[in-house]
Design brief:
Elements lengths: L10 H4 L12 H12 L4 E6 L6 H11 L11 E4 L6 H12 L9 E5 L7 H10 L9 E7 L7 H4 L3 E4 L8 H16 L23 H21 L15 H15 L5 E2 L8 E2 L10 H40 L3 H51 L1
Parallel strand pairs: 1-4, 1-5, 2-3, 3-4
Antiparallel strand pairs: 6-7
The protein binds adenosine-5'-diphosphate and magnesium ion.
Magnesium ion binds next to helix 3.
Length: 383
């Protein structure tokens, strides 16, 4: 019997640093950020340097460290992706920053990717927004850029600046550690890791080392390694088959469940005039991989909808509160502020409804697919 190996997918996402401590080769920056975290105050930050050095990863890790989970839609983290920094987009995000955070830390983090692509108008909006007196408390705006020289000094001077190191000589230990980490994670063995200098060209035309390039080369090397391994027939030799994180525990559970209900055919003793007979064996086989995956998909949409539902109620309550505050407000300036907050919340409410409808549609489709898969699974087994 030959074994099937899960494909190697997106090593750069799989091995993206999660915490600040996971970011390799940028010790001085990480230390400074950790110091800032000891008594953080609202600020803007520029993470500068060549591509693939860990700017985005550091921004995400810093957001987590301050209590804004980037993977949670209500975590207080938002992002303006590269190329989408229009004046409207920036104004909308600044409005969102003014609304209270719904996480427990009270912090909100806005990440602006590739911030150098910025019009005059947008530059002026940021200049104004990043003035100390205009920043609400517990707010962090992080800009990333590969071209710090394109950023206006007036803007950069209002922010903390961090220059990421891409010098092959100074990050070589980090590069070596990263290659070993991926090798060990993918092959399950700590020995025989390739020499980082031998895996391929890690630098760009300017001589800057990119960790992303390490991932690309490792994908090729691991693919070859796996092809070699897959040639061997499975002969009881223990072998590491990495699955994606969600699938592994789910499959393990499915297998355990199946084992628990599997009973062996047991003869029943003859009693009085009743003849001895065999109890029918209850057979139960684990769900197929497709069914398990589909169940995970359905659960994911279910979870998402539940989270959205909670947020719906929060928004509704907040809208009611603001409306009554507007009614009672005697101060013009105060009323204007409240109206702005109301508008933002109403927009969020409408956006949320649209998103929820989409998720709901996906859920219905996923459930239908699951039903079909279960039906065809039992057909193959009974047929
Ligand atoms: N300093 C680093 N330490 C560990 N991994 C890194 C580092 N920099 C980059 N990587 C790897 O490269 C990928 C891209 O990194 P990213 O943070 O997006 O780089 P940038 O924003 O500087 O272009 C990450 O997912 C990670 O796998
Ligand atoms: Mg980036």
């Amino acid at each position: 019997m030959s074994i099937e190996l899960a494909p190697i997918v997106d090593l750069d996402e799989k091995y993206r640093p999660v915490t600040l401590g996971d970011v390799l080769g940028q010790d001085a920056i990480i230390e400074e950020l950790q110091e800032w975290l000891e008594s953080p105050t609202s600020t803007g930050m520029f993470l500068e340097g060549p591509t693939g050095t860990g700017k985005t990863s550091t921004a995400l890790a810093l957001a987590r460290a301050i209590g804004c989970d980037p993977d949670d839609i209500w975590g207080g983290f938002t992002c303006i992706p590269s190329g989408e920094q229009t004046a409207d987009q920036v104004r909308t995000q600044l409005d969102h920053l003014r609304v209270c955070a719904s996480n427990s830390s009270g912090w909100k983090v806005l990440l602006v990717e590739e911030a150098d692509r910025m019009s005059e108008q947008v530059g002026t909006i940021w200049l104004n927004a990043l003035e100390k007196r205009n920043m609400p408390p517990r707010r962090l705006v992080i800009f990333t850029t590969n071209y710090p020289e394109k950023i206006k000094t007036r803007l950069a001077d209002r922010c903390k600046r961090f220059m990421f190191d891409a010098n092959p000589a100074s990050v070589k230990e980090a590069a070596d550690a990263y290659v070993r980490k991926i090798w060990c994670g993918e092959t399950g063995q700590s020995k025989n890791a390739p020499d980082y200098e031998a895996i391929g060209d890690l630098t760009d035309s300017d001589g800057n080392l990119s960790f992303r390039r390490i991932c690309t080369h490792m994908e090729r090397i691991l693919k070859k390694w796996r092809q070699e391994m897959a040639k061997h027939e499975y002969d009881g030799m223990p072998m590491i088959i990495p699955f994606s994180q969600g699938l592994k525990p789910a499959l393990a559970k499915a297998a355990k469940d199946a084992k628990a209900v599997k009973t062996v055919q047991k003869p029943v003793q003859a009693k009085d005039d009743k003849p001895a007979r065999s109890e029918p064996a209850r057979t139960h086989v684990a769900d197929s991989r497709e069914v398990v995956l589909q169940k995970i998909e359905v659960d994911r949409y279910d979870d998402e909808l539940a989270k959205m539902g909670t947020r719906f109620f929060e928004i509704e309550a907040a809208i009611a509160k603001i409306k009554s505050a507007i009614k009672n407000s005697k101060n013009k300036e105060q009323t204007a502020k409240l109206k702005l907050q109301l508008k933002t919340l109403q927009q969020e409410d409408a956006d949320l409804e649209e998103q929820a409808n989409l998720v709901d549609e996906n859920l219905v489709k996923a459930e239908a697919k699951l039903a079909r898969l279960i039906k065809s699974q039992s057909k193959t087994r009974n047929g």
